[in-house]
Specification:
The structure holds three protein chains of three kinds. By secondary structure, chain B is of the alpha/beta class. Chain B contains 14 helices and twelve strands. Chain B has an eight-stranded mixed sheet, with helices on both faces. Classes of the chains: A alpha/beta, B alpha/beta, C mainly alpha. Chain C: Pfam families: BPD_transp_1 (PF00528), OppC_N (PF12911).
Chain lengths: 347, 380, 303
């Protein structure tokens, strides 16, 4: 069993790394006693490494734990177990006071640009807030905010306007400017473009690419959309029910995903190309994602897996009893957590 | 499951051949009076829909793509000012009273909305709601017949264990399952036209694939025409025959799905295609965003509404709003003064692959200001 | 196209100076006509109550030189009562005492209630459970009986601050509930998470984000509190449980004039009555104006 495991692919020197991250949210009974009656296994043993100037995309459907993982990586929520290593320190062990200066280096951009901006603050105040929190505003903060407004492509004359006076794309730029205020090294991008109209989405994607080139940022790009991921990411990790089921560089993954879930996900993304759409192979998954409070034994994907149905009973038993680990000894280029991983070219 | 019996009480319908026109919309316009003036949400939409055909309507939020269909269904508030015509098999729909509309709604035209949870009543089982949809229009059908038909319908949209699910309440089903129930209700009476308004936007991609498959199957089974309203060009590419691109309340391009995707002749369409990241292209390809935002529909300035965001605009664009002009004999039309210049152009030939362009935003503001100024002058 | 754009961009250039939050709030408040008019009237009322006594020759006490039952005249613009008290002087004192009670109750109960509700909603869990159970207990205590008992238990004659404290102790519960409900939904908003991920402390989040965003609820509650305080004070004074003679209040004046509402001394009843309405009404409009001014979405800043 262990022979099949190889050591994780290590980036030369990861800027930030999550090790065996586990997060269980307790399910409590109603009333004053609030006994713990169960747990939602949101994240179950995730390892991630992001190098300097690198974009790691975390892909999965709603409820797979990708947003929770991003928040664990910045110690915004406390993991049940596991470590987050940044500059040789384990962030999860830091006290709140010790964590405060570290917050400057790791910032978050949200999915919904309207909900993530305080409706009662002007753009200037929103972008200035992180500086004020860290006591940096007095020291040239005004100029810093004004230059940030220009960096993200907003009109500096609009600094006194409120979030509701902007379009979705402009609001997301405000959110990005706020995240950049403290000159972070790592940005956690939680579905930053999925709430935007297509024509506007492209501008924000280009902005994120430019900022990475200019500022040398590292991105954790959380998304459900493999098209955007292919465009922006260097490495991809695919999550299903709290676990990473496949990972590799973007080129490796798109050249031929080996995990049945990745294959289904890839085939479900519609291509804006009618001729290709007519001839594409479609893998339509049956059923729904099982509840994360009671995940299936062994391979968590087996209840919906199209490959599982074609297996013999002995082979199926292995999927039910043995949890597959990420491995690369299959014919694909990626590391996939499937006992019967097999490369399949889809795009 | 492939040969479920179509309810026999309506012979002659849903059996028409593919090709005859079921829905003809002509010069449909919708205005909403507000405190600040009239918002012209839809400014002249015309299309014909043939049986078995599927028409995709794309556009960004606020382009009027949903309002068009709501107007046809008679679902707009009473204050809306609707003009033009929408004929279903020759019968005019606009201006019908509530009683006549409810005779048609659900029976001849049915609609599927974005959020399945709000379109289902939480206090009734899905079976009850399905049966109700059938019995509203066919009151003579018996309870057991209705139930059998419900199970058939649930089965045909791909719901596992329909015998049990028929007694489930909406909250007991997942989002994808609920949307399939909504589709089952929509196809219950073999409608001529199914309008699906962003049917999969709230769903995950793998579930979206299931729902689109169910929708496709439902349409084939009852041989209905489908109007698929979405902002997702990928969904449009895979599931429609014809595409109508809307911008600022008007169609700006209309053609077969291949024409729209491979030979767009309106800069907006070209820009949309260029701004879309593609899974089948490597990352060195820069995206070409359309800068700026759509104009305010209140006091729209004269001329082409896209001109402020259009890199090709010339003086004439500020003066004359282009009509939909034919590109070739095939019915492909585009509303651009310079559509012949777009022949063979790729998105990055026209749009710059930069992250921001403040000059475009200034022009958008100037255009809105111009519209407001023109409206002020009219008031005086 | 360029000529129409030019003035607009000029206007933009003028407004592009970066402005503080409060400056914008004030600018919006002064655009609200009813609120500004009310503010002016309210200021006049306040001056009448607090500065008036220094300018008017009579105070609220009984003087032997004053005739009883005098109709309004230059010497006694609001007339005099049976005991020989100048009603203008009495009105000044009564308004002052009622305003004292109202403002202390409004400020006291709002501050207590808002903080209590914000803490309960923000921390949730057992903190919330304990705080809310206590609130439930406060809610089932019959207010009038207990205030009456408390007022009766005060040995010396009841002063306005006794009234204020008693009313504040009972008034804050509804504000706490309203603020808690608002905070519960606000704390799930992403901008709260954004503030936290920027390193903001709980105190920063409560004061900079939660309280400003619950401001409309708080202001509405506070204006209702003022009306509640004035009316409760009137009721209690009317029942003989409130502020006691020789001190006076609007409630006491109405109580004393109760019999004359429909005879020739009607002004003894209606002048304090109008004053109560005036205070409650202006406070309401000022509250409306403040609520709108603090919510940038409610006013048309542009267009």
């Amino acid at each position: 069993m262990n022979a099949m495991l190889d050591t994780p692919q290590t980036a030369a020197n990861p800027v930030i790394a999550g090790k065996d991250l586990v997060k269980e949210f307790p399910v409590r009974s109603k009333g004053i006693l609030r006994r713990k009656v169960g747990a939602v296994h949101a994240v179950s043993g995730v390892n991630l490494e992001i190098g300097a100037n690198e974009t790691l995309a975390l892909v999965g459907e709603s409820g797979c734990g990708k947003s929770t993982t991003a928040r664990l990586m910045m110690n915004l929520i406390e993991p049940t177990s596991g470590q987050v290593l940044y500059e040789g320190k384990d962030l999860t062990k830091l006290s709140r006071a010790q964590m405060r200066p570290m917050r400057r280096d790791i910032q978050l951009v949200f999915q919904d640009p309207m909900a993530s901006l305080d409706p009662r603050m002007t753009v200037f105040e929103i972008i200035a807030e992180p500086l004020r929190v860290h006591g940096l505003f007095k020291n040239g903060g005004r100029d810093r905010v004004n230059s940030l407004i220009e960096i993200v492509g907003l009109n500096p004359e609009h600094r006194n306007r409120y979030p509701h006076e902007f379009s979705g794309g402009q609001r997301q730029r405000i959110g990005i400017a706020r995240a950049l205020a403290l000159q972070p090294r790592v940005l956690m991008l939680d579905e930053p473009v999925s709430a935007l109209d297509v024509s506007i989405q492209a501008g924000v994607i280009n902005l994120l690419e430019d900022l990475q080139d200019e500022l040398g940022l590292s991105y954790l790009f959380v998304s459900h959309d493999l098209s955007v991921v292919r465009h922006i990411a260097d490495k991809v990790a695919v999550m299903y029910l709290g676990k990473i089921v496949e990972e590799g560089t973007t080129d490796q993954l798109f050249a031929g995903p080996a995990h049945p879930y990745t294959q289904a996900l890839m085939s479900a993304i519609p291509l804006p190309d009618p001729r290709k759409e007519r001839t594409r192979e479609r893998i339509v998954l049956q059923g729904d994602v099982p509840s994360p409070s009671n995940p299936p034994s062994g391979c968590r994907f087996r209840t919906r897996c199209p490959l599982f149905k074609t297996l013999s009973e002995d082979q199926q038993a292995k999927c039910i009893d043995v949890e597959p680990l990420l491995r690369s000894d299959h014919d694909g280029l990626t590391r996939a957590a499937c006992h019967y991983a097999k490369k399949k070219q889809l795009v | 499951m492939a040969n479920i019996s179509v309810s026999t009480s309506d012979k002659g319908r849903a059996t028409g051949t593919k090709g005859d026109t079921v829905l003809a919309v002509k010069d449909l316009a919708v205005g909403f009076p507000t405190d600040d003036g009239l918002v012209n949400a839809v400014r002249g939409v015309s299309y014909e829909l043939r049986r078995g055909q599927s028409l995709g309507i794309v556009g960004e939020s606020g382009s009027g793509k949903s309002v068009t269909s709501m107007a046809i269904m008679g679902l707009l508030p009473k204050t809306a000012q609707i003009t033009g015509s929408a004929k279903l098999e020759g019968e005019e729909l606009l201006g019908l009273g509530d009683a006549e509309l409810s005779r048609i709604r659900g029976k001849k035209i049915s609609m599927i909305f974005q959020d399945p949870l709000t379109s289902l009543n939480p206090v009734y089982t899905v079976g009850y709601q399905l049966a109700e949809a059938i019995r509203t229009h066919y009151s003579d059908i018996s309870k057991s017949e209705a139930r059998a038909r419900c199970i058939d319908l649930l089965d045909s949209v791909g719901i596992p264990n329909p015998q049990q699910r028929v007694d489930a309440y909406p909250h007991e089903l997942s989002g994808g399952m609920r949307q399939r129930v909504v589709i089952a209700i929509a196809m219950a009476n073999n409608p001529d036209v199914i309008i699906a308004d962003e049917p999969t936007t709230a769903l995950d991609v793998t579930v979206q694939a299931q729902v689109l498959e169910a929708l496709e199957k439902a349409r084939e089974e009852v041989n209905a025409a489908l109007i698929l309203i979405t902002h997702d060009l990928g969904v449009i590419a895979g599931h429609t025959d014809e595409v109508l691109v809307m911008y600022a309340g008007r169609p700006v391009e209309h053609g077969s799905v291949d024409e729209i995707f491979y030979q767009p002749r309106m800069p907006y369409t070209l820009g949309l295609i260029g701004s879309l990241p593609r899974m089948d292209e490597s990352r060195d390809q820069r995206l070409t965003p359309i800068h700026g935002t759509p104009p305010s529909m209140l006091n729209l300035a004269p001329g082409c509404p896209f001109r402020a965001r259009c890199p090709m605009h010339q003086d004439i664009c500020a003066e004359v709003e282009p009509d939909l002009l034919p590109i070739n004999g095939s019915g492909h039309v585009a509303a651009c003064h310079f559509s012949d210049q777009l022949e063979g152009k790729a998105p990055d030939d026209v749009f710059a692959p930069v992250a921001t362009d403040l000059s475009v935003e200034a022009e958008v503001e100037a255009m809105d200001a111009e519209g407001a100024a023109a409206a002020d002058e009219e008031d005086k | 196209m360029s000529n129409t754009a030019a003035p607009r961009l000029d206007a933009e250039a003028i407004t592009s100076k970066e402005r503080g939050q409060w400056e914008l709030v004030f600018r919006r408040f002064f655009r609200h006509r009813a609120a500004v008019v009310s503010l002016v009237i309210f200021v006049v009322v306040v001056l009448f109550a607090y500065v008036g006594p220094f300018l008017w020759k009579w105070d609220y006490k009984i003087h032997s030189e004053i005739p009883s039952w005098a109709a309004p005249s230059l010497a006694h613009p609001f007339g005099t009562d049976k005991a020989g008290r100048d009603m203008l002087g009495a009105m000044m004192q009564a308004t002052k005492q009622s305003l004292n009670v109202a403002l202390v109750v409004a400020i006291g109960s709002t501050v207590i209630g808002a903080l209590y509700g914000a803490v309960a909603g923000f921390y949730r869990g057992w903190v919330d459970s304990v705080l809310m159970r206590f609130l439930d207990i406060m809610f089932v205590i019959p207010f009038l009986v207990i205030t009456g008992a408390l007022a009766g238990a005060i040995d010396t004659s009841v002063r306005w601050y006794h009234m204020a404290i008693i009313l504040a102790v009972f008034g804050w519960t509804s504000i706490a509930r309203a603020v808690r409900a608002e905070v519960l939904s606000l704390r799930e908003k992403e901008f709260i998470e954004a503030a936290r991920s920027a390193g903001g402390s709980d105190w920063h989040i409560i004061t900079k984000h939660l309280i400003p965003n619950t401001m409309s609820v708080i202001i509405v509650s506070a204006t209702l509190q003022i009306a509640f305080a004035i009316l409760s004070e009137t009721t209690l004074s009317f029942l003989g449980l409130g502020i006691q003679s020789p001190d006076t209040s609007l409630g006491l004046l109405i109580d004393a004039a109760g019999a004359s509402a429909f005879n020739e001394h009607w002004y003894l009843f209606y002048i304090p009555g109008v004053m109560i309405i005036l205070i409650a009404l202006t406070i309401n409009f000022i509250g409306d104006g403040m609520r709108d001014a603090m919510d940038p979405r409610q006013t048309m800043v542009r267009r």
